[in-house]
Specification:
Helices cover 35% and strands 32% of the residues. By secondary structure, the protein is α/β, with parallel strands linked by helices. Strands 1, 2, 3, 4, 5, 6 and 7 form a seven-stranded mixed beta sheet that branches. 40% of the residues are buried.
Length: 148
């Protein structure tokens, strides 16, 4: 497993929790390479553009490396509609190609916001195990890459 360092997208003293992102690379025998972007903190109107750019870059890098991109929202708070829109913009290329980004373990309010928004480029999973099972079975829409 290869870990990239956490880096702050935005830091505002006294405000919402800063958004921190970390990429973790894994290899699973039945799935192949997985690139998990772990997010922690708040996505709001102040950092939604930076979050969009970071997530789009994560997806592009995963595609270049023939890995399955995954987004872990276990510790994220989406503070506004711009935050949900940031996910839609970042996953637009996946949606256009009939794929969706597995989003794992969102908090209840995040899960509800994503369900209500009906983003075509996002596939919500209650657990990482559920997302991996979907990737292993090939029933998900996150891509069709298989280990060689």
């Amino acid at each position: 497993m290869e870990n990239d360092q956490l880096f702050p997208v935005r830091v505002r003293p006294g405000g919402p929790a800063p958004l921190l992102l970390q990429t973790v690379h894994e290899h699973r025998p039945q799935v192949g390479g997985i690139s998990v972007l772990k997010a922690r903190g708040t996505v709001d109107a102040c950092n939604a553009v930076e979050f969009t750019e970071a997530l789009a870059e994560h997806i592009a890098h995963a595609d270049e490396a023939a890995e399955h991109p995954v987004l872990d929202l276990t510790e994220v708070y989406l503070a506004c509609a711009a935050a949900v829109g940031s996910l839609d913009r970042a996953t637009g290329s996946l949606a256009c190609s009939g794929r969706a980004l597995p989003v794992v373990q969102p908090r209840p309010h995040v899960r509800e916001a994503l369900r209500t928004a009906g983003l075509p480029g996002v596939q919500v999973h209650a657990t990482m195990a559920s997302a991996l099972h979907t990737l292993e079975s090939g029933t998900g829409t996150s891509g069709n890459r298989r280990p060689g």
